[in-house]
Amino acid sequence: PPDHPYLWQQALLTHKPLARLKPTRKELVIDRETAQGMSAMRLVSSNVASVLIEQAGDDGHFRKVVQRELEPTEGKLQVNTIPAQTASRYVRLKILSGRADFVSVVSVEIQ
Question: Has this prediction a pTM greater than 0.85?
Fold first, then answer.
């Protein structure tokens, strides 16, 4: 059995080998109603290791604006202002990895 009981439970529920269970990326798409300038994103979170900020082009496809590794905070909230120059109606925040079994996003502010 695996070291982590949740993975073992998921393997039993899905009847899939453990090697096929992969963590899923979590994302948040922000609709700003009109294309507006953005200089940074302020993110308050916990246990987040890395994020990706993307913008939607006129063709509807998302393109990378910035990818950032976040510093660990040992049980405290992470407060990060990530420089991200863009002018788009849709901005997507992807949580690429975490530092624990769960991550949380408390708030996202576009500046």
Answer: no
